[in-house]
Predict the structure.
Amino acid sequence: MQVQSMHFKERAGQKLADARLQKNLKKLSEKFVTARAAAILELDDFEGTRNAAVERRNRALANLDVWLETFERNATARGATVLYAETHEEAARLIVDIARQHGVRKVTKSKSMVSEEVGLNHALEAAGIRPVETDLGEYILQINDNEAPSHIIAPVIHKDKEEISDLFAKAHAMPRKTEITQLTREARDVLRSHFLTADMGVTGANFLIAETGSATVVTNEGNEGMCTILPPKVHVVLTGVEKVLPTLEDVATLMRLLPRSATGQQISNYFSVLTGPRRAGELDGPEHMYYVLVDAGRTGLLGGEFQEMLRCIRCGACMNHCPVYQKIGGHAYGWVYPGPMGSVLTPSYVGVENALDLPQAATLCSQCSVVCPVKIPLPDLLRKLREKQWERGLRPWYETVGVAVWAYAAKRPSLYAFGSKVAVRVLRWMGGSDRRIRSLPVGAGWTRSRDFPAPSGRTFREMYRERQLGAQAGSTRK
Ligand code: SF4
């Protein structure tokens, strides 16, 4: 997927003006926020489980090379082939090569955000191989001209039933259905024929287990099972190198948090642990199994100030609770990962200079870090990215000059006091008779869509001085 993060402001403006999108995005708080709040109350010790999850993710990341080697050894012993890709392009090339080697013409895919990173569908199509998305949301996007997902666990959250009905009628050339059950039945019928005729299945992995050489895949539709158990003779697991965990017990701890944080479920409808290709005597499973483990910027975060971001288990809770994401949805962010986690991951993976607005696309209200099941300090990381932009001179000149002037004055109390007094008077004058400021010469972007009250009453400094004078008078009287 092409990086479009430099157009964030323009896209965000379009999304805010889209009444249909605004209505559809309300589903976020109605569905996910409420469901998560209820689900975590069921846990005896949510905070204790979170701390255990942080510890387990940190243990894995502290010795990532060791756990990856252990994983590779055990997966290979169970008959799988483990391949590493340094870049997105290399990952796509490896998968196309695997497909060619096995004479693959059609690939069924379970939902994988890494495959979006890699641009896998595009690479397969360019090689004459047909990819078919089988997660319902991803399938809807694919038949809508390969539209990008707008959420990491609910890719089609920005669409409503009517839009999907229209799309199905057009893509399937069938009478338009209006009931959700009719639409899912129709999708199931179409997808069933693809499951039965695909040569290769591609899935992501929520976690890799080093001690067993297995991949775990969580879905609510069971399509990952159809991609790996039905005919495909080849199964490729495409995921990031940071997904490895030492033990099955680690996975058990994280699984107490993942579905609850993501969809408010105690456990997802399907939870598969996949270990190697089909062995003698087994009735189903692929003949060949490959892992393509992608780096693409991940190991660059190890040992640095953004390492904590690698703990992310892709639950989506931070975006569900983000006041910015709730208003603009995922497409405005311009790459695979939206919301607060995307505003940290995108600049980290594609370069801070290619995603200038993303670290600013947050109110720093901290709700994201409050709900993050693995306690990633997202607001702190966003602040660090802002600092990086500043240090590298990537901010606009007016911001640089503004902060330099403010810093000069802030170090000189009498100058600061004089400046504040003048600024307050000017703002009061600008407020006019109704005391509302509707246009600011140095903040036109801000006042274009909102006004704000002119300062009124006494300033903080005046109140503070009065208080001190009052305290002094009181002590003299005693
Ligand atoms: S940053 Fe935290 S809340 Fe956001 S997707 Fe990752 S694990 Fe979930």
